[in-house]
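EI: anyone free to look at a 193-residue chain?
SC: sure, send it
EI:
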Amino acid sequence: MTRLIPLLALTLTACGGRPDHLAPEDDLTDLDVALVNQDSTAFAFPAALDGRVAYVTAVYTNCPDVCPMTMAQTQKVRQALGPDADRVQFVALTFDPARDTPAALRRYAETWEIGPGWRLATGDSATVGRLMDRLGIRVEESRRDTFADGRVYYALSHTDKALLIDQDGRVVETYGGSAAPPEMVAEDVRALL
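SC: here you go
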């Protein structure tokens, strides 16, 4: 048995050490999606990841329940990564580009006290919709109300999903965005670094 342990370690090293469950699921390198972050800085997804591992979620700032849990879980993932978090790009795409302007996303970023290496991303509705479709993230309007003063409020039903993207722009794992176990995600991220 003691002879098998070094052999197993050598085998994992020879294979790059990446666990089987982190095999590429979708290659995103054919995409060139124009987005804008919370600071009104334009960037192209996924090219702007610059060969870094990325943890991608989707939220919207008016969400009353799941999205705040997703943001909290993402912060826990960052904490679980410790200093390795600086080597990861965190991206939160908005489900609601009509309301989630860069200014709205900046306020949301301030509320959540997000640090560097985290982009809250929006763009025109059609572009964001196509990206969401490609990522397998679904959204639809679930309720619409018009107030007496004419203001319209709507809520969205959406997928609760997080994606882990490797340095080569390939999706290698998916998690529940609001329920991703931080230590497990951190272990997966470290396997890619």
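EI: The CA atoms of residues 121 and 151 lie 25 Å apart.
SC: 👍
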